[in-house]
C-alpha cells in the first residue's frame, strides 16, 4: 500500500522498461474512456467558502505512479486517481488544480494550507491520522514481483535483495518487519534496496539488480503488464488497507469530499472509472473518514 514516495516507469517501444536511466514517464492514458459527471448542487453547497470562491480544489500530487497518477505524452497528469478526483471536483462544481510535489512534502503542505487535499495513492494509516484526516476511496494490498522463473517467496525472503520505493509502507513497515523476523530466527536479513522512484525499483528488478520488488498491487500489476517477458508476480496480495485523500485535521472539506465520492460510488460512476483503468478489484462501496485498520 503506498506509503509512497515518487516514481516513474521508463518505457521503450513495445512497452518494456528501458534498461537505461530515465527522467520521466510519458506513456498511455489517452485512450482511457471518460465518465461524464455533473455538478450536484446539494453537495456543492457544502464546499467551504474559500474553496468555493476560488473555484478550484488544489491537489498535491506526486507522479508518476502508474496506473494511478502519471503523465501522458503531452505532460498532462492522468490516471485512475486523477479521473476519480476530477469526477469528485465536478460533483462539487470545482476544477481540480494539480500541483506536483515530493511525496513526503504533501501531508505537511496540507497541514500548512498550501494544498486543500492530497492525491497520491496514500495508504490511510493510524500514524498518518495523527496529523491529517483521510477520506477513503479504494482498497489495496501489497503484491510482490520477481524475475521470471526465479522463485521468491514473500513470506520467506531472508537473504534476498528486495526493491521498494522510499517512504512507502513497504519501505517503512513491511520489509523492516520481515527482515527483523529473519534475524530473530538466525537467518540472513532481507537486503532492502530503496529507490526514490517506483520506476527505479521496477527497472532494478527487470535488470536483475534485485531479487524481488514489493509495491501496491495496481503498481506491480502494471509493471508486470509492461514487462511480461521479464518479470512476474509472486505470492498473493496481502495486508489490504484503504487508500485515502488526506485533508487538514478536522477540516470541513473532509465530509464534503466523502459525500461526493460516496455519491459516485452509489451511482456506479466510481466503479466505472476503476474499470476503465483495470483496477476494479480495489473498488469499495462505502467511503469513511479515517478508515485505518
Automatic annotation (TrEMBL):
Subcellular localization(s) per the UniProt record: Cell envelope
Listed GO CC annotations: cell envelope
Keywords, sorted A to Z: Signal
Endpoints of the signal sequence: 1-18
Annotated Solute-binding protein family 3/N-terminal domain residues: 56-281
PROSITE patterns, sorted: PROKAR_LIPOPROTEIN (PS51257), SBP_BACTERIAL_3 (PS01039)
Pfam families in UniProt: SBP_bac_3
SMART domains: PBPb
Family classification: Belongs to the bacterial solute-binding protein 3 family.
Name the record gives this protein: ABC transporter substrate-binding protein
Organism: Nocardia huaxiensis
Amino acid at each position: 500500500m503506498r506509503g509512497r514516495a515518487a516514481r516513474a516507469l521508463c518505457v521503450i517501444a513495445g512497452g518494456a522498461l528501458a534498461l537505461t536511466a530515465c527522467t520521466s514517464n510519458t506513456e498511455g492514458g489517452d485512450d482511457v474512456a471518460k465518465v461524464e459527471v455533473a455538478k450536484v448542487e446539494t453537495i456543492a453547497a457544502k464546499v467551504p467558502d474559500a474553496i468555493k470562491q476560488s473555484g478550484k480544489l488544489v491537489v498535491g500530487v506526486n507522479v508518476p505512479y502508474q496506473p494511478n497518477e502519471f503523465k501522458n505524452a503531452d505532460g498532462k497528469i492522468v490516471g485512475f486517481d486523477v479521473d476519480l478526483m476530477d469526477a469528485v471536483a465536478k460533483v462539487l462544481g470545482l476544477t481540480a488544480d494539480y500541483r506536483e510535489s515530493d511525496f513526503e512534502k504533501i501531508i505537511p503542505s496540507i497541514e500548512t494550507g498550501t494544498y486543500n487535499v492530497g492525491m497520491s495513492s496514500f495508504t490511510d494509516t493510524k500514524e498518518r491520522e495523527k496529523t491529517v484526516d483521510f477520506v477513503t476511496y479504494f482498497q489495496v494490498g501489497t503484491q510482490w514481483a520477481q524475475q521470471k522463473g526465479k522463485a521468491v517467496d514473500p513470506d520467506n525472503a531472508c537473504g534476498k535483495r528486495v526493491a521498494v520505493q522510499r517512504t512507502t509502507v513497504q519501505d517503512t513497515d513491511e520489509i523492516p518487519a520481515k527482515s527483523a523476523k529473519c534475524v530473530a530466527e538466525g537467518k540472513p536479513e532481507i537486503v532492502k534496496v530503496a529507490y526514490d522512484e517506483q520506476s527505479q525499483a521496477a527497472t532494478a528488478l527487470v535488470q536483475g539488480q534485485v531479487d524481488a520488488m514489493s509495491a501496491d498491487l495496481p503498481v506491480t500489476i502494471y509493471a508486470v503488464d509492461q514487462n511480461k517477458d521479464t518479470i512476474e508476480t509472486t505470492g498473493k496480495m496481502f495486508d489490504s488497507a484503504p487508500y485515502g485523500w488526506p485533508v487538514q485535521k478536522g477540516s470541513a472539506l473532509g465530509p464534503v469530499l466523502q459525500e461526493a465520492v460516496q455519491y459516485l460510488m452509489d451511482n456506479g460512476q466510481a466503479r466505472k472509472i476503476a474499470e476503465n483503468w483495470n483496477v476494479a478489484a480495489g473498488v469499495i462501496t462505502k467511503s469513511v473518514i479515517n478508515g485505518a485498520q
